Amino acid sequence: MCGIHCVLSIDNTSNTEQIPKDLLLRRGPDSCREHSVTFKNALKQSLTISFISTVLSLRGKDIVTQPLVDEASGSTLCWNGEAWSINGDAVSGNDSLAVFQLLLQASNTTKGLPMPHAVAAFCRALMLLRGPYAFVYYDASHRLLMYGRDCLGRRSLVQSHDSTGSLILSSICGYPTSCTWTEVEADGVYVIGLSGAADMNFFDTDMGIYPFPSLNKELPDQDEPANIATAVDALEEVLRQSLNTRVTDIRGHTQPSASVDVDGSLHAEIAILFSGGLDCTVLARMVHDILPLSQSIDLLNVAFENPRIHGSLESDSRRSKIPYDECPDRITARKSYHELQLVCTGRRWNLVEINIPYTETVAHRGIVRALMHPHNMEMDLSIAYALYFASRGIGVVSGGVDNVSYASAARVLLSGLGADELFGGYQRHATAFARHGFQGLVDELELDINRLGKRNLGRDDRVMSHWGKEVRFPYLDEDLLAWALAAPVWQKCGFGSQPDLSGATLEPGKKVLRLLAWKLGMQEVAFEKKRAIQFGARTAKMEGGKVKGTQLLSS
User: Fold this and answer.
1) Which position among 2, 123, 344, 493 bears the catalytic label?
2) Which among 49, 94, 392, 423 could disulfide-bond with 510, CB atoms 3.0 to 4.6 Å apart, if both were Cys?
3) Strands 470-472 and 412-414: what pairing?
């Protein structure tokens, strides 16, 4: 995870006071570097590009400081992402260097050719990457500034213009926030030609080809859908590959941690955002098969005091935990945690119970709003609260020493996001099937797939990265997506099917994932219902029951 900040200005007139350097350092605490490029265009205007990059180093033996600068050409890269593979070959070691060489090669092969050729070569190179990213790249040979996000928008990049008219690109808006910030759309590469036009010729290019196929719209030719047992095995394989990529070879994994908690156990280096629901618990169960038993795993579970639900807390200390214990996600997390302990023996699981009093929520309201900006709705805030405090990872380990605080040292977080869109886990999928059968279900799934790049992952990235941690999404792996989209609908969902598993009837939504949980021994988890994070953690409607999620926040 890295922090990017880039300012493009004419005659070096940018308002540098707006640089959120402290927030950039929170995202990337391992290194920070500044770099600038100044040159004159054909109209004799002096253009300056100022870069700041901070780095959270998770791959390779050494910390690689950014921005990366090619001394020969002056080309510069700010990279915030993970290139898991390039042209099908796994990237070992530091990926930012590999990406930089790939982009430099694209620049060199089109040296002396018109700008469209350089842009096309750059896009072809970028399409070879698999993994989440946001970037800003200055191609000095062609005087081009290019920037963008991966097609799923898994990393944050926002843009604005300051009071001087300078363009600002950043991982974070900073504060005080203004209304001029917008998310950079995850729909292609944005290019600014800097050679001659006074208005800095701006255009974007659609990369055109996504790294996964269109949704399979085939419908079953009979009332009873085919058996989906083979799909369960296929999902297990692609999900295991996705997890193996994301939880192994993390910088520092090969050396024992020096940080030990109060009862003598090593802190975990992998943490899972853990509601106890189906999606995250399957991840936990499969990570158990990948990591050595000597490594503990943190399960981060957050619960809030919500005055709308709980009213005023009683002063009696014996009552102090009840609002948190009654949160739906706390109840589910404890149940799934106990099942993990039974099935995954020999592993230390740290169920980190993160209890957030209402006073603490209010105290952090300003920074949470700044981090999630430019999103500004009640629902954004309630989701951001949950992700912000969960990723901070400070709580008490369930079953550990009472009232002794535990701070998760894990810098890699796993999220179960994406499973609902791929496997039909939302209530609207069930509604679509009830109204229009398999055709309605397929149409609803297609809407979700097409909106994946419009999800609020940039907002989530800004909120969680504030703690110097990187969130990874195993269900949004390109190979897993390719399999899920190519599979027919009846191999993913159980709508219209008969009871299975010795008479037990599983929820039809995400049926293939439920059957995988069952296969892996997590039979109680296989029956868990879908619950939105803001309701499970009780961050929704904290200040009034009549507030709608789509309502804009007041100042």
Assistant:
1) 2
2) 423
3) parallel
**Residue 78, beta-bridge partner list:** 136
Q: If 0-12 CB within 10 Å is exposed, 13-18 middle and 19+ buried, where does residue 72 land?
A: exposed
* pLDDT tens-digit readout, 225-239: 556 888 999 999 999
Angle of CA points 442, 447, 452, to nearest 5° = 125
CATH fold of 229-536 = Rossmann fold (3.40.50)
* DSSP string over 427-466: HHHHHHHHHHHHHHHHHHHHHHHHTGGGSTHHHHHHHHGG
Which helix (DSSP H) or strand (DSSP E) does residue 381 occupy?
Answer: helix 378-392
Q: Does the predicted TM-score (pTM) go above 0.85?
A: yes
What are the backbone angles phi and psi of residue 27, rounded to the nearest 5°?
Answer: -70, -40
Most confident of 19-28, 343-352, 375-384: 343-352
The answer to whether residues 481 and 392 touch, using CB atoms and an 8 Å cutoff, is no
**How far apart are the two ends of the chain, measured CA to CA in Å?**
30
CATH 3.60.20.10 domain extents, the chain: 2-205
Reduced to 3 states (helix: H, G, I; strand: E, B; else coil), residue 241 is helix
The H or E element spanning position 40 is: strand 31-40
Question: What is the helix (H) or strand (E) element at residue 80, kind and residue range?
Answer: strand 76-81
CA-CA distance, 246 to 250, in Å (whole number)?
8
Q: Calculate Rg over the CA atoms of the chain.
A: 24
Whole-angstrom distance, CA of residue 271 vs CA of residue 247: 10
The CATH homologous superfamily to which domain 2-205 belongs is Aminohydrolase, N-terminal nucleophile (Ntn) domain (3.60.20.10)
Q: Tell me if residue 32 is catalytic.
A: no
